[in-house]
Amino acid sequence: MIKTLQVRNSAGTLLIAVIIFFTSCNRNIVYSQYHSFPGNEWRLKDRAVFDLEISDVQSLNNISLMVRHADTYPYNNLFLFVTTAYPDGKVMTDTMEVILANQKGEWQGSGAGDIYDVKVPIKKNVRFVLPGKYEFTFEQGMRVDPLPMIMDFGLEIEKSK
After folding, report:
1. Whole-number pLDDT of residue 26
2. Is residue 114 in some structural domain?
């Protein structure tokens, strides 16, 4: 019983140390958030919405998308419909493709068991022109409903180095 408690205590200490390490290393992260999909299925009606407040209009930023999927995901890509709402009320919609596997069928990103995490840079050295609230909305555009084996979808904004 005592050994079990010591292992748990050591694991808790290790977890706290890892969190502190990664928090201190990511000071350039402006925004990082994931949206999870119930049952690991991204339905056509599901939207991954990310709201963020931007106050720094001087810094340059890199914007990346993050996709967590199972190795049984049946496609090598992911088409997205992206809607951006700006603080001044302007709204823009676009379509983009995220490549998840290379031409040989090898998954991109890092894998742990049967789960892969892919971080895809989509814009580099971007300056937010207006301070205020931005809303980024992503919908899957694969025309499969539901789209299986997509677990999480994320948005990350990091200050350029």
Report:
1. 63
2. yes
